[in-house]
Q: What sequence folds into this?
């Protein structure tokens, strides 16, 4: 008498996971340093020294009950205050601790955001290409995730399709900028137009439509690219943040929900997150990690390697004639495959020990993702394999 | 358009929380050391030195990606292996890592257990007196928690009422031994009888009935008391464990689900937990805490203070003529109030700066809970207040 819906999920295996397992197995044969594994979005740079120092110092000097005791449900008050102050300073919106709910990474933050504003059967729209875990995240709440097809010219928003799909049943729109998998940062124009449409539709339908903004890549933005603050454009914005990428600590499950201070229900929503967490069994992120992160809010790991890698890969792809939107941030790039079926393309790449992920998984068939959070040396060596791959399989020369 | 069910929960305020806030406010007036605050079940003893040493050593010596990287969804394999080995050694059941799912404390473990075996509308039975958070934990999954009235003579199980309530709709039975709030440990006889009934009813109804065993107090058992392993008695047992009390780190949110190796679906259930966690947004407990806890699995904090406190309080209560079952473990005791309405009784106690929690909250009106996870010195001083309270209010002398 096990619950069938979870049982049914056991047979489905993530394509990314399969490719990553292939890479690990192949690594055992030829040495992992020779597998050009672009499958997984795992940060490759160390945590900032200050984080480790803070942890050690707290462990060496603080009373253990102070360090490891229960956190109040919305998070440790001093931590929430520091997060709010940092957001206010950075984005100019009047964040206070009452707008902040500490969560277990972006996944935890999103789990609360979805439950805040959707009942089973309600729709959430997101935009392809999109992070495939959004499906189980949303589906298991009972809400319905619908995916707006991509604008493949820019990987900004396909507004024509969006307006068609933005029916009365849509209670939330979910965006992810800088974007996994495209690496694209939504422009000011995109966010303004999105907000205008949402405001009009709120009035037309007579109900709120919330913008859930998944921002784990916020700190990874490349030179010359503007990454506007989503909350600035639209009052009903729920920001979902994770420190996983900015501080390279995805395993510590730390992030937050920050409801826009201009949202009329902001404080109530944070209080509701506390109630939601009683059902999800989450309570709050680990106390010691909350305390340590609060000391390094304005620091990041050395993220420059991602831009170096991006430029190497982007330039090579362009030289080889690939169609590719230049990433503005993240550690992903999302070029068009050299044949219609990207699954076949990625399968052929494996012969060259190039592990690429077909775009079908991300709602954009015909494209593929490379997660370049790997050593720059390996990136360089992979370009030789890439050249050989496209020459031998597709007759393409730079 | 916020979700009403969570909004509705905002008005309800936990009695325990209110009393704890009273204690804190009163502490500001007269000094917290003079408030005999028995409201909260927060461990009062430090974490074992070995835990802190392990944390510092790992931080000082390990690669940060190794320490803070993503944990696989069911937990870090080496950690799951060590947990399984420790359980096998201790309880003689053939636990393997495939039976272990690392979870965010007991709350996280329970959130997964409930979702494994109940669909919305299914019933879960628990036994009064019970931990009041079981209500939101279960209710928010859509299942229905029903509470079997207490056997007030022993705070073991009221089997007559249990058999009446164990209908075809019951998919799981939830127990908590050693028990919050009674401090009672279920005896071998109780567990054998419970298991016999469940086995019979499984056959009669033609479906599994799971025993969800919430065991955060497993390590806090007093001299001469036998605390049998629940899983030993019944194959379909889902053990939910937390390190919050045994290692005094409730804020770090670390525990596990251990499905009985004799349960025919054990490995499938752990795989299902991974799927469930995609919906709850939990992923896994923090990597560094998983790694550190795995090094101190067979250690505990110095828990002896709880037994010292219990004996002081129990002896005083008996001398004053209270009706009280002697706790076998935990840091709770659950005596009968000196008037019918325990809420009134506890209200009067506040005049003496004694913060006691009425049993109504725990499904046992007429009783009250004392959480004696406080300094022994304060316990001693509180007994003077207790004597004064019962003498002045009820004319009772030792």
A:
């Amino acid at each position: 008498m096990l619950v069938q819906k979870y049982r049914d999920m056991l047979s489905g295996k993530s394509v990314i996971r399969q490719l990553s397992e292939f890479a690990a197995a192949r690594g055992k044969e030829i040495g992992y340093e020779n597998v050009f594994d672009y499958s997984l979005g795992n940060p490759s740079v160390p945590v900032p020294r200050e984080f480790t120092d803070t942890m050690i110092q707290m462990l060496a000097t603080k009373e253990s009950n102070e360090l490891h005791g229960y956190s109040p449900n919305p998070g440790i008050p001093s931590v929430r205050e520091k997060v709010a102050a940092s957001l206010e300073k950075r984005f100019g919106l009047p964040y206070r601790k009452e707008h902040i709910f500490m969560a277990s990474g972006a996944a935890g933050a999103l789990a609360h955001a979805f439950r805040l504003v959707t009942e089973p059967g309600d729709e959430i729209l997101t935009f392809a290409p999109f992070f495939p875990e959004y499906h189980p995240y949303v589906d298991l709440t009972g809400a319905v995730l619908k995916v707006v097809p991509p604008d493949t010219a820019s990987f900004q928003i396909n507004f024509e399709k969006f307006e068609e799909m933005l029916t009365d049943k849509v209670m939330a729109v979910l965006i992810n900028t800088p974007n996994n998998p495209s690496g694209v940062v939504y422009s000011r124009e995109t966010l303004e137009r999105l907000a205008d449409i949402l405001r009009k539709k709120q009035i037309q339908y007579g109900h709120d439509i919330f913008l859930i903004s998944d921002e784990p890549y916020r700190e990874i933005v490349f030179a010359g690219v503007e990454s506007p603050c989503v909350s600035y454009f639209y009052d009903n914005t729920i920001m979902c943040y994770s420190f996983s990428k900015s501080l390279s600590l995805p395993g510590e499950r730390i992030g937050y929900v920050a409801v826009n201070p201009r949202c009329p229900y902001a404080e109530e929503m944070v209080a509701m997150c506390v109630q939601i967490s009683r059902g999800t069994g989450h309570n709050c992120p680990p106390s010691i990690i909350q305390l340590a992160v609060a000391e390094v809010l304005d620091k990041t790991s050395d993220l420059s390697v991602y831009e170096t890698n991006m430029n190497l890969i982007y330039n090579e792809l362009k030289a080889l004639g690939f169609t590719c939107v230049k990433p503005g941030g993240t550690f992903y790039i999302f070029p068009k495959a050299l044949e219609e079926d990207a699954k076949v393309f990625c399968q052929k790449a494996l012969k060259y020990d190039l592990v690429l992920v077909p775009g079908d998984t991300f709602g954009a068939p015909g494209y593929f993702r490379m997660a370049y959070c790997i050593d720059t040396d390996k990136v360089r060596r992979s370009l030789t394999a890439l050249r050989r791959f496209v020459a031998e399989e597709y007759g393409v020369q730079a």
User: Anything to note?
Assistant: Residues 4-47+302-394 of chain A form a domain with the Aspartate Aminotransferase, domain 1 fold (CATH 3.90.1150.10).
